[in-house]
Amino acid sequence: MKSSVTLLAIVALALPVAGFSSDNSEPSELNTGVGDIEYNGGAPVAGTTCYDNGDTDINTDSGNEMTNWIEADDFELTADCVITGAEADWFETGGTGHNGVIEWTIYNDAGGTPGGVVASGNGINIVTVLLGVNVWTWYNSSWDFDQQVPLSANTRYWLGLHFSDRCDQRDDVYWAYSSQQFFNFSQESQNGCGFPFVNTTSEDRAFSLNSMGPISVDPESFGTVKGHYKE
Questions:
Q1: Using CA atoms, how far apart are residues 89 and 173, in angstroms rounded to an integer?
Q2: Fewer beta carbons below 10 Å: N end or C end of the chain?
Q3: Which residues are within 8 A (CB) of 61 and not within 5 positions of it... i.e. 6 or more apart?
């Protein structure tokens, strides 16, 4: 694949885990973004996991490049949830490297490929942690969305990630494969960051989607939407 990379060797190197923030500040616990929010059952729970597609294994996994292309993986929630953030595992193979920008998109499904855009924006309060070095340098980044995204249970969606603010330069930043398998394939954009998307691998990507907790959203903002987090 033009954007894929395969792990060719195993180099064991133990490194201390170090974190840094894109704005040198602690991540906020809550970004409401829109409307009047009513919290059911007490204070909001920051970082509650609505969906987990599994972690990467830096000893065996590979990935696909996500600065010159948008990489996308599909998912379904087991309960309605208002998504407020995400995290993903990724690695660099050299080149320019990550410039600190994370652009995210949630797509509807269109017959097994990303379709219409549900919501999109930029990651804020980005925190990146070093996972280790094994041939490549591996990281985990977590971030808040700059808007809330209410999604329905038992509906197929796609998460698209682009770790850059331009689509005409390849910086050798790769979204890592997940060590777990769910839908068993993922896709990438063509023509830079445009449609159509095509299958690139039979592997899933390492990511999770998070919510502030069980909430009700003001109908004037989103219509009648109830959010619940996965137990």
A1: 11
A2: C
A3: 7, 176, 177, 178, 179, 203, 206
